[in-house]
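FAQ: What does the model actually see?

It sees only this:
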Amino acid sequence: MTRSARPGPAETVAAPRHDPADPAPRRPGPLQRPPWTLLTNHGHVLLAVAGAPDSRVSEIAARVGITVRATLAILKDLEGAGYLTRHRVGRRSHYTVDRHQHFRHPATADHKVDELLAIFTPDPAGASGPGS
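And it is asked to produce this:
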């Protein structure tokens, strides 16, 4: 009988915790993922699409670090909620993010997606000032 490549529950390695005595905590390497992040995969996919609207689904998945299947489901969620629109250009998809869409959570519903994008994406060419 062959053994599965995936570790079982008893074989799972816990992620290292930050030691308060260590002044410079080490950041996870490119192959390590922390046990949780402040942004959800939905947020990361939205940022990836905003940064590169003509990206292939496989490129978005690789950038976020999730499967193509999960990326497709998230893109469908974001499109269904009005955060982005998909346009077919030949055999490719082009995505447009609705920067004026409000966040869904009641605690942040007064804020627009544009505020998040302004933090994580570079300014479009020729844009300047908060009213752009």
